[in-house]
Specification:
The complex is a heterodimer. By secondary structure, chain A is α+β, with helices and mostly antiparallel strands. Helices cover about 45% and strands about 20% of the residues of chain A. In chain A, strand 4 and strand 5 form a beta hairpin. In chain A, helix 12 runs antiparallel to helix 14. The longest helix of chain A is centred in the first third of the chain and has 18 residues. In chain B, strand 1 and strand 2 form a beta hairpin. Chain B has a six-stranded mixed β-sheet with strand order 1-2-6-3-5-4, with helices on both faces. Chain B is about 40% helix and about 15% strand. The chains are: A alpha+beta, B alpha+beta. Chains A and B meet through helix 2, strand 5, helix 4, helix 10 and strand 10 of A and helix 2, strand 5, helix 3, helix 4 and helix 11 of B.
Chain lengths: ~450, ~425
Amino acid sequence: MTVVVPDLRPAGTFTVPRTAERTLANGLTVLAIQRCAVPLVELRLRVPFGAATLSPSYLASSALLSQTLFSGTSIMSTVDIAAQLQSLGGALGAGVDPDRLLVSGNALASGLDRMLAILAEVLTDASYPEDEVTTERERLAEHIQIAESQPAHVVRVALLRRRYGDHPYSVQTPTVPQVHAVTPAVLRALHADRIHPAGAQLVLVGDVEAERALDAAEQALAGWDGPGTDDAVPPVPQPRLGPVTLVDRPGSVQSSLRMTLAAVERRHPHHAALQLANLIFGGYFSSRWVENIRENKGYTYSPHSYVEHSQAGSSLVLSTDVATEVTGPALLETVYELGRIATSPPREQELEQARQYALGTLQLGMSTQAGLANLASTYASFGLRLEYLVEHAARLGAATVDDVAAAAARYLAPARALTVVLGDADRMEAALTTLAAVERTTVDEVLAA
Amino acid sequence: MIPATRYPIERLTLPNGLRVVLAPDRSAPVIGVAVVYDVGIRSEPPGRTGFAHLFEHLMFQGSANLEKLAHFRYVQGSGGTFNGSTHLDYTDYYETLPSAALERALFLEADRMRGPRLTEENLRNQVDVVKEEIRVNVLNKPYGGFPWLSLPSVMFATFPNAHDGYGSFDDLEAATLAEAQEFFDRYYACGNAVLSVAGDIDVTETVSLVERHFGDVPARPAPERPDFAEPDLTAEQRHSYVDKLAPLPAFCGGWRVPDPIDDLGAYLPYVVLAEVLTDGDASRLVRRLVLSDRSVTNIGTYIGFMGEPFEVRDPTAFLLQVQIPADGDMEMVLRTVYEECERLAADGLEAGELARIQARMATHLLRDTDAVLGRALRMAVLEQQRPASTGAQLLNQLPALIAQVTEEQVRAAAATLRPQRRALVEVVPGLGGTQ
C-alpha cells in the first residue's frame, strides 16, 4: 500500500498587519498595531545606548541602570511602582544589549494609559535610591558570578573576544569589581545623558485601536524631553583568522563548540539567500548539520546555527555541545558540512523545504501579540517596518539554487570561520590538533581579560 | 473586572476512543496541533528511569509510513515547528504551522499513533542523544536539575514519585527494543490520547479530516492508571549535596498541596499564594528578603516540579526556590519565610493586594494561551486530566476561578507551610573560586 502524505493547501498572500505610526515633537517614534486576540497590550521601548556600553566602566553602569530603572522616583518607591503596575495586570522590566536599552512589559488592555503614565514617570524622574542601588548591585554581582560558572556563558565571552578583537562588541558583560564600583551618582548621570526620546522607538501591540494607542502614548510621553547622545558604534571588523581557541575547563563532561563567520545585515541583497543557506546547513532541525552530528552520529543534543544582527554588523554563529570524547570528530564533521555547502549547490528539494520553513515561521512569529511586538520593535530599531517582511518574503520566494550556492560559498566557507572550544583540554586537545592549530587558554584568563 | 477568554471549544470522541478538542480562531492563518498521551515519568518501570523521555525521542524516529527524518522534514517543509516533551503525568507531541498544513499535520500524528518504527540503530542513536541532553542540561553546568530532579526523592517515598525522570545512564543504556514496543502497546493507545487543534480551522471540515486520518487507528483502551498517592510528610525531610560547579549556595523547599484535579477549589488558593509571596517587587517575600533584609539574591515560589500548576495530578507540591549570597544563612531565611507566612495567616492581606495579584495572574493566563500552540497544549492536557464535565472548557474558566479565590482561603493556605511538613534540599557550592 502506498500512502500519500497530504499536500499543503494553497497558501494565502503574505500580508502584515497595519502599523499606525507617529513621531512626537520630542523625537520619539511610536508604532501601534491593533490585535484583539486577547484583552492585553504589549509594550516595547528601545532607547539607543550606542557608545554607552563602549567602555568597561559604562558596561557595568548600563547593566546596573537597567536593573534599577524601576527602583523609584521622587514620588514613588520601587514597591509602589510594582504594585501599581500589578493592579493593571501589568509589569515592566528593562535590559541592555551593546546597542540599546530595552524596556518591555504588558498589561490588561484597560491599563494602557496608566502603564504609560508610570513609564513616563520613570523615564523622566528615576531617582536611583541609594538603598535599592546597593541591593541591586549585589544581586547583579552575584548573577555575574553564577554566569561565569556556566560553560555557555564562558564560551560566549571567549567567542566575542575572538570575533570582535579591539571592537567595543568584544566585551558585553561587566566584571564583578566593575559592578561594585558603580554608584547612584553614576547612574543618575548616565540616565541624564542617555535616556532621551530622540531616536527611541515605542511599540504598542494589543487589544487597543491603533490611533487611540498613539494618542495615549503622546499624552503620556510628550513631556519626556532632552536631546539624546548616540555615538555610532564603528563597523565590526572582519574576523581575524587564527588557531582554534581552546578554553580549558577541567572536569567538563562535554565540549562546547562555537564557530563564527561574518554575515550581512537585513537590507543587504544577499540576506535572504544567506538565511536560506544557513537553514540548509544547520539553521533548523531538518538541516544537514543536525542530521549528521545528532541523528546519524549521536554526538550532541542541540546543534544550531543562526545569524545574529547588531547595529554595527552581523555574524553567523554555530553552536553545539558534544561529548568530550568526540570533540575532534564533531569539529571534523562541522567543517565538512560547512565545506560541502560552500563548494557544491544544495538540491532543489532542500531549498524548497528551507524556503517553506522561512516563510511559514514568519507567519507564526506574527500570530501573537508578544511576537508582533518583538518583531515590530526589533525591526524599528534597525530603521525597518513590518512592511519590510513583505519584501523579504518576496526575496525568499525568488531565491534560486544559484543564489543560495553563491551565498554559501561566500559566507559559510570554513576557511573564514573562527573556532572556540571550551572543555576538558587534556582529554581532547590532541584530537583537535590533528585538524587545526590550537591555542590553549583557561577559563580564568578568558574571564579576566 | 477580570477578563476571560471565550474561545469556542468543540469536544468529540471517535469510535476508537480517541478524544478530540477543537478551538477555532480565525484571527491569524496559523494552527497548533497537539497529541497528548496519558503516560509520563511516574509510569516508568523500576530500573528504567528516564524511559518515558527516551521513548518520546523514539516517537520521532519514523512511523508506520514514514522513514526516519521524514517527520521533521514534513513539518518544517510546511513552514512549521515541532517538538515533544515528557512530564510527570503526560507526554506531548506537537506542531504549529500555517493553516494550509492542517491535513498534513493530522496525517503525521495519526501515522505515529499507529506505531513508531523501532530499530536497534535508532534506539542506540537516541540513547546517545539523550545522554548529551542530560550532560548539557544537568551534568555540565551549575545547579543542573535543581530542584526538579533533586527534590522529589526527598519529598516522596515511592519509586513513581521519587525517581530521577531524566534517568541514569545505566538505565538508559539497558533499555531494549522489546521494552519500547511494550511501552507503546501499553500506553500509546488511542483511548489513552487526546488530539487538539487550535487556530485557523473550520470545525466541520476539521472533524471530517480527523475522522479520515485517525478513524482507522486501531481501537485500544486506556490502561488503568495506578494510584500514585502518598501520605503527607509528618516530619521535615532534608538532603544536602555539594555541587562542584556551583559558586553560591541555594536551597529549595516543598510542601504538599491539595489534589489539583479532585479538589480544585482547595488547590487554587495555593496557586494564588505563590504569586502573593514572590511575584515581583511588590510581593511579600521579595520585599522582605530581597529589598529589606538583603538575605537572598533570588526567591521564587510556584506549584509543581515542572512549574505547571494546571497540567499535573496529585501528588504535587508548593515549591520555594532560593539563591543566597556566599555568606548567606539558610536557616535564617527559612525562619523568615515561615514568619512571613504566619504573619499573612494571622493578619491577612493589605487592601488591594489580592486584587492586583489576581489581575496579574489573569494577564499570565491570557498570555500563555495567546499562541495557538499554547492553547492547543493546555486544552489537550485539561481534557485528558479533568472530569468530562469541564475538560478543556476549564481554559476559559480559569481567570474567573482565580478571581474567586478569597483572602480567607489564601490565609488558610499560608498557614499550612509549616516546617514539619516540608522537604528541603540544600546545594552547597563546591566551586573553588578566586572571587
